[in-house]
Structure formats: C-alpha cells, structure tokens
Amino acid sequence: MLNYLLRHMRRLLRSASLAFIVGAVAAPVLSPELTFVSAVHADDDDGGDDGDDGNDGGARSGRSGSDGGKRLRGPQNLMDYLDNRRSVRAPQARPTAKRQQAAAPVYEARRLIALGLSDDHITKLQERGFSVEDKSEMRLTGTQLIRLQIPPRMTLNTARQQVSELAPEAMVDFNHYYRPEQADPQSESQPDAAACNGTDCTLMRHLIGWKQPEAGAALCTALPKIGLIDTAINPDHESLKQARIEIIRLSDAELPQSGTQHGTAVAALLVGSETGRAPGLLPQAELIAVDAFHGAKGDSNRATTFDLIRAVDLLAEKQVPLINMSLSGPHNQLLEKAIEAAAQRKIILVAAAGNEGPHAKPVYPAAYANVIAVTAVDRDGKPYRRAVRGAHIDLAAPGVGVWTAASVSGARQKTGTSFAAPFVTAAAARLKAEKPDLDNQQIAEELAGKAKDLGKPGHDPVFGWGLINAQALCAS
Prior knowledge:
Elements lengths: L1 H25 L3 H12 L36 H7 L12 H6 L4 E9 L3 H9 L3 E8 L4 E7 L6 H11 L4 E8 L21 H4 L22 E5 L13 E6 L11 H11 L14 E6 L2 E3 L3 E5 H13 L4 E4 L7 H12 L3 E5 L19 E6 L17 E4 L3 E4 L5 E4 L6 H14 L5 H11 L26
Parallel strand pairs: 5-7, 5-10, 6-7, 10-11, 11-12, 12-13
Antiparallel strand pairs: 1-3, 1-4, 2-3, 4-9, 8-9, 14-15
Helix pairs in contact: 8-11, 9-10
C-alpha cells in the first residue's frame, strides 16, 4: 500500500510540473503575435534613414487603392480567446514614435471638400447647418473648390451622403492629409555623414549617366520651369542662394509653418548651386515652390487635399509644365480630378512611390494613372527596402544615401523615394526642353523606353520599367 501511495504521489507531481511548464511556455506565445500586428500598423521608415515619403502605401490599367488595411476581429485561436478572457495578459509595448505616426489622423475632422456645388446647393446646405469654411476658384476644372464645416453631432459619412444626395452631379470627399516621410529632427544637428564632401562619388547622378554641361557651356535649349509641391524651403541655404526660386505658401497663415528639412533637400536636388555643398541636377532651371504643408502638434508636417488641389491649380495657372510631388497619402476623388485636369494640359506630374513598405497598398498621387510613380534604388541598383511596390510603379532612380542639402546649412545623405523623384523630374525637364510638344504620357513612355531594365525582364512591380537613363538626354 505504501509503495502504491508513493507511485501515485509521483504521478501527481509530474502532472503538476508539466502543467506549470505548459503555462510558462504558452503565456509568452502571445507576445510575438501582438508585436507583429503592431509592427504592421507602424510600417514606416526607420530613424537611421534621414528622410522621406511619402507617408508616403496595380498595372497602369488598375490603379485603384484603399484608404486602409483590414483589421482582424475576434479571437483567432485558443490563446487569443484566453487573452480576451484575461486569463493570460501579454505585456503591453511601450508607445514609440512610429506607432504615434501610424495613429496620425487620416483626414480633417468635421470638414468635407466639394467640387461643383452651385450657389443654390450651398444655400440649402447652410439651411441644414453646414457652413462654408473656405472656397477657391479652380481654373483647371472651371468650378469652385469648397471646404465645408459639417453640422454638430453629424458624422462625416452622414454629412457626405447628405451633400451627395442634394447635389448628385457634384464631387464630395473627405479632406485627407498627405505627408512627406519625415526624418528624425535630431539627425540634422549631427555632423555631415557622407565621406566625399559633395563630390560625384556621393551625388549618385553617375548611376543614371547624368551629364552636366561643361563650365561656361549652356544646355542645348532653354529648360522649362519646374513646379515643386512640398514643405517650406530655406532660401538662405548656401546651395539655394543663387537659385531662381519663387516660394509661395498656401496654408492658413494662422497655422504653424511647415519645417524646411524635406523641402530644402528636394529643392537642392533639383536646382542647387553647382558650386555649393549640394549641387543640383538643373541649377540653371527656374523653380516655383509651393509650400502646401503646415506644422501640426505631434504630427510633424501635413497638407490637406484642399491645399494640394490649390497648389496644382496655381502651378497650372503659372503655366508650369512639370510638377514634382515628393509626398503621399490616401486616394481622394477631388485630387484625382485635379491631376486628370492637369494632365490634359500636358503637365508632367512626377510623384514618389512612398516608403510605407514593399507589402503596403499603393499611395497617392503616385498611384494615379496620369502620374509618373518613382521608386528608389541604392548605388548597387538594389531596391530600397521600404519602397512601396506595385504594378503602378513606372521608373526607378537613386534614392538611398543621396547627397543633398540639410535644412539649415551643409549637406548630408538622405534616403527615401522622395529623393528619387527629383531625378526623374529633372530628366523629364530635359526631355521636355528637347521636345516641348510631348504630353505627360509621351514623356513617361520615352523615359521608360530609355530606362535600364532591372529585375525581371520588362515591367515589374519593384523597378517599374527600370532605372532612369539620362545619357541620351540633352546635355551638350
């Protein structure tokens, strides 16, 4: 009997030990799974890469995007169920800057934007509690662009439905936010990171066969004006002091001005002084830079759809034939309409593909059919690890460790599709100078035909048609 009791007690002890081990192993199983979900929603560039897009995300025949991803609902397995029942609690990750950026607002609260509302429509909307916050005459579309404040206690979706029902022929959408991919502001105070001090080994232009005219020589024909829609620019930077730049700020004067880090870097890539620390690709060109962004507490720089549309319309009014947009955001019907109208006027539109990651959905305006979408590669022709991919990608250009201007003074290396887009814009400007009658699609086709094929033969979702090739462009 004693032996039987001892054997029974040993079995009980083994069972208890096994249960303890299983519990200890099972509990942490949740942590990696929850961490993975958080990482997906916090998909943006790392702090080591000083800069860019757009925040930044289909074949040319299918450029349809989405404003967000799907979220899993309900328990997915037994451990999820136990977690929901509070039987097992996974440790909560400490909030990070990336998670805060991922949680940034997607559109302006309590406001809608509309194209095509008549005075009678506006009167009826005001009777329902709507109010007109701002309006602008759109020369591209021949209609008024209206920003509406919705009535109290009414949701945006309900308000949008009411406006659409009242004016079915009008176009109405949310006032979405668009952002350039931002770098760690502290990185601007660090010493210059590049080793070549602004010589050709860091300029990256040799990767695309870019040739500058010899000293004292002019290009074979006059360059067209270049439009830039970006953040603020520091015109006192040594690389831009001699440049021909007209700067126009669009956002409300009462809002904080946007930072100069991103806009200065992109502007210097385009028209920076040949003798400066960050020489530009087209120092002889005239740049019209529209600051459509404003600062926002805890959200760095952002631009509303309302201001982006006004920026495109303003540049069209000034007869600017090329526009660089190193920014990204969600699909918006009104922005798409403005892009289409600009393309019909033979305006060449170039946009950064975005840095939301290779598995992200397309971002806009790059994913619109009338926009040349530019991805980034490093000096070895390998794709930038954070670049958005898809059938909408048109061309690749240098965008990893690109030498350009810092916001205050000096220069440094920056990474992102924002800094690849200016290479294609500059190439398009030279092509436009040679063949001024070419429209947006024809320019894109010529650049694609000259591109160096990378990756799979022909067009692919990583490199598009390949690396931009500037060897045959006007440079003599």
